[in-house]
Recover the amino acids of this structure.
C-alpha cells in the first residue's frame, strides 16, 4: 500500500508545484509535511541544505531510504507544536495547511522558523475550484480567505498559481502564496 500511495503522489499536481518552487529556493529550506520526499528532494538542486519535517514515521523512513543525500534531512516534526529554534531562508508547506486544526498557531510557528527576510511558500486546494474534496481537510480556503489568514502573520503576501505567476482567477487550483518575513 505504501508504494501505491507514494506513486500516486509522484503523479499528482503536487510534483509540479514542487518543481516550480525548486527553481526559486536557495540557502536553507524547511519543507513541512513532506509526505514522500519526492518533491522535497528537488529543492537540493539550488538549496544548500534541506530539512523535511513530517509526523508520519513511515514516511520519514521511506524518504530517508529513497533519498540518501548529504544535504537532505528527513525528521519528525509537528508544526502545530513548533518544530525547532533553527532559522531557514525558505519554509514550504505544499498542500498541508488544509489538514491542520490550528492553522493560525501553525503559521506563527512557521514565522518563528524563518530567518529575517525569509520566505514562506504554501499551496492549498482552492475551495472555489472543482477539485475533488478530501475528508481529511480541516478546512478549505478561497483565495481571499487564504490571503486574510496569511496577512495576520506576514508583512507581504502574494497569491500565485502553481507556476508562481500572479493569480488571475479566483478559481485557479491549486492556490499558492508567497509570504515574506520582516527584513525584506
Amino acid at each position: 500500500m505504501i508504494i501505491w500511495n507514494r506513486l500516486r503522489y509522484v503523479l499528482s499536481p503536487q510534483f509540479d508545484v514542487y518543481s516550480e518552487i525548486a527553481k526559486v529556493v536557495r540557502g536553507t529550506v524547511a519543507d513541512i509535511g513532506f509526505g514522500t520526499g519526492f518533491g522535497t528532494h528537488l529543492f537540493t538542486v539550488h538549496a544548500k541544505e534541506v530539512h523535511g519535517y513530517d509526523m508520519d514515521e513511515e514516511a520519514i523512513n521511506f524518504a530517508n531510504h529513497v533519498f540518501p543525500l548529504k544535504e537532505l534531512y528527513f525528521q519528525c516534526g509537528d508544526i502545530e507544536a513548533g518544530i525547532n529554534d533553527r532559522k531557514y531562508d525558505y519554509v514550504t508547506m505544499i498542500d498541508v495547511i488544509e489538514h491542520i486544526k490550528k492553522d493560525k498557531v501553525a503559521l506563527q510557528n512557521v514565522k518563528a522558523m524563518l530567518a529575517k527576510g525569509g520566505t514562506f511558500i504554501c499551496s492549498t486546494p482552492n475551495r472555489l475550484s472543482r477539485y475533488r474534496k478530501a475528508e481529511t481537510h480541516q478546512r478549505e480556503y478561497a483565495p481571499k480567505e487564504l490571503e486574510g489568514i496569511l496577512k495576520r502573520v506576514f508583512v507581504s503576501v502574494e497569491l500565485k498559481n502553481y507556476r508562481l505567476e500572479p493569480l488571475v482567477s479566483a478559481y485557479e487550483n491549486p492556490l499558492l502564496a508567497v509570504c515574506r518575513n520582516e527584513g525584506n
The beta strands are 27-32, 47-54, 72-76, 88-94, 114-124, 156-160, 175-180.
